[in-house]
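Entry for the shared binder. Reason: the reviewer on the internal report wants the predicted structure included alongside the sequence.
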Amino acid sequence: MSKFFSAKYAALTPYVPGEQPKDAQYIKLNTNESPFAPPASVVEAAKTEAGKLHLYSDPESAALTEKAAEVWGVKRSQVLMTNGSDEALNFAFMAFCDEKHPIVFPDITYGFYPVFAELNGIPYEKIPLKKDFSVDYQDYVGIGKNIVIANPNAPTGLALPLWQIEEIVKSNPNNVVIIDEAYVDFGGESCVPLIEKYDNLLVTQTFSKSRSLAGGRLGLAIGCEKLIADLNTLKYSTNPYNVNRMTAAAGFAALCEREWFEKNCAAIQEVRAYTAESLANLGFTVLDSKTNFLFAKSDKIGGKALYEKLKAKGVLVRQFNAPRIADFVRITIGTRAQMDVFLAKTAEILEEEK
């Protein structure tokens, strides 16, 4: 770091993204992207707007926001479009948390939560997952602090039922509960309908996973009008043109492709079940995922060793060094053909380990 770097950020540990290789030699199963390219209508929508790049984008993302409100069954004033759901989450940390209003979240979850807290000088507490890696909702009932929970959780893939989320929200009426639903379209249960009952619930979702727009950087927050107004205050104080023209057009077109979207989600869930069964047959412990990835470990090889040996064979997965999960790898669900290669290479590695 330079001598000019502010001391308030000197101890910051930044989020580490998954590897993004610059060549095509790998089967990429490490960053939970969709294996499916967006439909032609989405690509064409973005191309059309590319010819208008000399003009600023609509700061309200009006057409996109209106369409999103229709799709999610809420009012336009209850939706904020953001530059990826990470921006929505950061706005929420900024808006609702401070030294007097700390935040809590699971100890094994999305790695950006502690980064957002430290970046904004917010005290935080990590609550341990249960032995089976599930979130114990009772740990959050009546806790009297702001809360963020990824549901389904990452990297475990496990999900809480809607009634447990509601118990958390209604038992903390004086605190904001943020539910990060980045993976909800792959088998989870969205709590968006609860925003009509609770003014302390904020839900975030992304277009990166199920809608094949990871490179477009588009997300949204859904909550009561006052919560969204708070987030808008921060948006207009930092980057009013936060969603670019091409992404807004692509997002709108993606929301019009419901049949395509549902078909791809179903296909990923089908391949996920096939891959989970195949890994179990190889002796792996596989958590019950409601996401577009699997979290699995083998007693025959450590997580880091498996990651390295798969990479050497042209397959990328993700491995985390945290003590409780170091022996696990997170495996994005690709196409059936990609997963067959992954399974074959994994079987080869286990045979070599003998």
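Summary line for the report: The chain has a mean pLDDT of 96.
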